[in-house]
Design goal:
Layout (H helix, E strand, L loop, with lengths): L1 H42 L3 E6 L21 H7 L3 E7 L7 H25 L4 E3 L3 H10 L2 E8 L9 H8 L2 E5 L27 H12 L3 E3 L5 H10 L5 E2 L16 H10 L2 E5 L2 H4 L1 H22 L6 H6 L2 H26 L8 H15 L4 E4 L18 H9 L4 H29 L1
Parallel strand pairs: 1-2, 2-4, 3-4, 4-5, 5-6, 7-8, 8-9
Length: 437
């Protein structure tokens, strides 16, 4: 017995030592992989094409120089190594009337002005507005962060197509023709819910808007309009198009995602799809379950604190000031209870994560090629996944790409190269069209 025991101990010690060696080797391999990813992340220009903003965060007292309770701000960008943030001039869809158009236009101008304050008054030494790919590379080389501007919803141009040129002069470099709800320019993807369409794609005004965007160097954004509107936009455009924040419908059947037919047309057009890290567009099943259960926990915890959580429709009905205050409070509350929710749901309803997100990148690369895929978050507009839930976690995306075998050259294309290539081509077409008159 003693002899057996001694032999057993000897074998056990050998196995333990061997296991220790294997674990050390694995750790070393992981450290090498992380080091490789960190170098790539530092070397490439990381660019996120969709970050929403609230003008309340662009004041003398409260602004992006501070680490606010926002997913994007300058401290978080620096911490996560996010070089370029496309700040979004968004206006929600309203009535199709001249008064409503004017209110939307005023709202859009307030956001342009807010971005100007950030780059010219609050932090000109930290961030600068770029209008071209050369600007992006020059500003990045100087050590500053880069701001760019996208317009989500062409609604604020109303019926005045001259506003497209003005928006371009203010720095806008992409625009979608609709958001959630049919605009005067195009049908929205939301028409799929009830099968009701206003234009059966683009309106006549929308078709003219495509030509004006081509002329003034504004990329046509296919995120949010209907499939038919997107197909018509691609056919009419004289320049490559983008989808600023959409994923693959084959992996997640949501009307905001792009099906294989649209993907093929975008590839043929020379455009790029900026894969979006938005939970319900990445994995609807996981997102729905997690949302349902976390909602129950949130209401339970909110009730204990005497805080009432409103339905989204009720939030939208609030006056703008009250809505901003509520959003601030709900954001703070959610951040506070997030550890509780994560712990209680880690087994029952795991969160949509970076791995799920990169599955979409993998699919798109295989379907349309590495030259037509990019990256976006939709931060501060509902976006984010576990592991990339704010700009400070941006490195985790690069790490997952390296883990899957993407090369530095491929990662550079995904993070910024493809999008900036499209911007160059769009601006080249614009110069040619402006010469013609």
């Amino acid at each position: 017995m003693k002899k057996f025991t001694s032999a057993f101990v000897a074998v056990a010690l050998l196995l333990t030592f061997s296991g220790f060696q294997v674990n050390c080797q694995k750790l070393t391999d992981e450290e090498k992989l992380v080091a490789k990813a960190k170098k790539i992340h530092a070397d490439v220009i990381t660019l996120d094409t969709h970050n929403d903003i609230n003008v309340a965060n662009f004041t003398d007292m409260v602004n992006y120089t501070q680490d606010l309770n926002t997913q994007v701000n300058l401290p978080k960008m620096k911490s996560g190594g996010l070089d370029v943030s496309w700040l979004i001039v968004y206006t929600g869809q309203g009535e199709l009337s001249e008064d409503a158009f004017q209110k939307a236009y005023k709202s859009a101008i307030e956001k342009f002005d807010a971005i100007d304050r950030l780059t010219k008054i609050y932090a000109p030494d930290q961030i600068e507005l770029a209008r071209t790919s050369k600007d992006v590379r020059r500003i990045n080389k100087s050590g500053k962060l880069v701001a760019m501007i996208g317009i989500e919803n062409g609604y604020p141009i109303g019926t005045d197509l001259k506003r497209i040129k003005y928006f371009s002069e203010r720095g806008a470099r992409y625009m979608s023709l609709a958001h959630n709800g049919h605009s005067q320019l195009a049908d929205s993807n939301t028409g799929e819910a009830d099968g009701k369409w206003l234009h059966n794609g683009l309106s006549e005004l929308g078709k003219k808007a495509i030509a004006e965007m081509n002329k003034w160097g504004i990329m046509i954004d296919l995120s949010h309009p209907s499939k038919e509107a997107n197909i018509q936009s691609i056919k009419l455009s004289k320049a490559p198009v983008i989808a600023s924040h959409s994923s693959a419908r084959a992996l997640c059947d949501h009307s905001r995602n792009l099906d294989d037919e649209q993907l093929a047309l975008i590839k043929q057009n020379g455009g790029v799809v900026q894969t979006v890290a938005f939970r319900s567009y990445v994995n609807k099943e996981k997102s729905d379950l997690r949302s349902k259960l976390s909602g129950e926990i949130s209401r339970e915890l909110a009730e204990k604190e005497g805080f009432k959580i409103l339905e989204r429709a009720d939030v939208l009905k609030l006056p703008e000031a009250e809505r901003a205050e509520y959003m601030k409070k709900i954001t703070e509350f959610r951040q506070k209870i997030r550890p509780v929710i994560n712990e209680r749901l880690k087994d029952e309803a795991p969160d949509v994560n970076v791995q799920d997100f990169v599955n979409h990148i993998d699919y798109l690369v295989k379907k349309i090629g590495i030259d037509h895929v990019g990256i976006s978050s939709d931060f501060d507009g509902g976006g984010g996944v576990e592991g990339w839930d704010d700009a400070s976690q941006t490195f985790n995306v690069t790490l997952e790409l390296v883990r899957r075998g993407y090369t530095k050259n491929q990662i550079e294309k995904l993070w910024s190269g493809n999008l900036l290539r499209v911007l160059d081509e769009v601006q080249k077409v614009a110069k040619q069209m402006q010469k013609v008159g």
